[in-house]
Specification:
mainly alpha; 21 helices; Growth Hormone, Chain: A; globular
Amino acid sequence: MSEKIRFTPFMRQCLVAAAVSINMVGFGCTAGFPGIMLPQLQEPGSTISVTKDQASWLASVGSITLVFGTFNVPSIMSRYGRKVALYAATVVSILAWCCYMLATSYGVLLLGAMAHGFSFGMIAPLRSIYVGECSSPRYRGGLLAICIESQIFGVLIVHLTGSFISYQLTALYSMSFPVISLVIFIYSPESPSWLATKGQYDKCRQNFLWLRGEEEIPECEDMIQAANVLQNSSLSTVKEIIEVVKKKEYFKPIIVMFALYIIIPCTGGLPTAIYGVTILKILMGPEVNANLWMVGLDCVRVVTTGITVFVINKVKRRKLLFSVGSLCVGSQICLGAYMILRNNGLIPLNLWIPGVLISVQMLSISLGMQPLPGVIAGEVYPLQHRGLAGSIGLIMLSISVFSVLKGYMSLISMIGLEGIYFLFSLVITFCLMVVWVLLPETSGRTLQEVEDHFRAPLLEADERQPLTRSVTASYLSINEKRCVRV
């Protein structure tokens, strides 16, 4: 953080995002790794043989341990800071890759999958919180999108390299990403928001100035003023936690994130990354080169990533979310309709019709359905107990991901792939309706302004008016009076 390095505030914010993004490439490798490991384990002569049920556990068990990582990270990031929590999550990820490389039994592979889920549970709320707190409102959307979309690049890398080398060597290669990010984290600044909550106001101003420049200092002072009122509050009992979550500024963002996290696995990105070979052969016929198509779809998502980073800073969050949501729902309905028509002999088996439709589905995922939940998670949670709120929201991500990945092959047997497309379309539509009602526009607003929006009593007179600093000041004055009374 030496001022001898003449970087602009934007470049410094990019440094923070780069550290997280490289880490997320490694977690993208984690998401796509079962897609290349499981076929190798099921080949004749494999040193470790697995059944179909064991394979489904390897693909889904991480979504269970994700919960434990999620609920461990708030206390770490609150007590020791965002950087220490990032160190811990990254080290666990490195250990998980070591399990994959050195495994000689199914149990060790399962341990690696569990460790990866635990580490992702830690990093999922951290990535949005840390980057969101270090970023200017004008850049926040794009930087958060880069961090989240980096996972897609990781999926492409692991699918591509895993097609030519063993899963052990692929694990060794994938481990390089968390190692590199760990080194960059050492030179990254601590979050100004966390420093403010700990009363380290001079250090907070120093880091804020280094990251954001002098133009945004008023936001820093607002943040410090809010933290000064809230820094002595802590949660020690379940009753206190419940009382906090009952507040509108907490439960409304949590409901929004519940809906968005349910959407994520239903869009089809995760099932395609893991069960892509099976899905593509059902869609296009058993003779299709499924591995080649899977890499091609990954390329579509990577290319779309670049578009997303540009679009997400130019288009309002709500407009983008509901536009790409409609595109995702439409593509899945068309895929389901195509399969029904083909299965009934009304149209012949065709390679390109489902190929185009599933490419549109992947495009909608990369353009918004995957990055936007992470971007919005970095904007809607209130400063006080932000880690707790993020962890509660991620419970639903764990439940939805586990349910979809563990039961996906069973659903194919029960209702067919076309039935899955129709079912997921209904789920996505319902969740988008919930988000439509509760989510305000967050683009271009400071985190404090978004928090004030959810505190409804201050905005009931005219909720459509742009949020101003006077709202924050009013809230702070109310709380200061309460503190004086106490």
